[in-house]
Amino acid sequence: MAKRNDPVARARGRKPAPVKKPFPVGFAVGCAVLAALLVGIIVFAAMNQGLGDKSSLKYAEHQISGLQVTHGQGRNHVEGAVPYPNQGNTPPDGGNHNGNPQTCQVYTAAVANEHAVHSLEHGAVWVTYNPKTAATADVAALKKLVDGNPDRLLSPYPDLKSPISLQAWGERIFVDKASDSRVARFLDLFTKGPQTQEIAATCVGTTQTGPVTAAAPTPTATKTPSATPTKK
To answer: What is the pLDDT of residue 21?
Structure first.
């Protein structure tokens, strides 16, 4: 009886009351932030794959500000003129083209887009300038950058919307001066660069200037009529 009335003994025999632990809000928030960070890293890596590889197209395209990029262009060989977008004032940077490339050299007259684009497919950089707005000193500087390089060509482009433009397959920049640092950078990155569609092909073909000529019609074979035997 003494033990029953002993408050100390009763306290010792009683089970401790359960302790309610607060929800770990801070831990949950930390996990959510970490998960979001990991997802962001994975997405960034997927979208920028190749940025650390100096031989990759993605790396090259991130080195030049103001670069215009066009991917997924046709590569068929066609005869005659090709309706390139905005070709009145913008040289094409890819697409269907003539089966004969333009030989890479310095030209003083405009060349056919269809031949030049074929050279772009082979890894060439096509440098164009507006003969009305490009400074004489800039044209001379461009000639030095192009002359003697088997994968670069230079030609005037009447009505070009800027004094100078540079084209590689799917890549283009417009500049005002040959001294613009992007000119040398573009030439360095895209002359036979990672955008090249046919890496082993050369830029040797026609040296003609002026518009592309339509293919000569294939002569229709004529049958020599056989002699009709005469009746005796």
So the answer is: 66
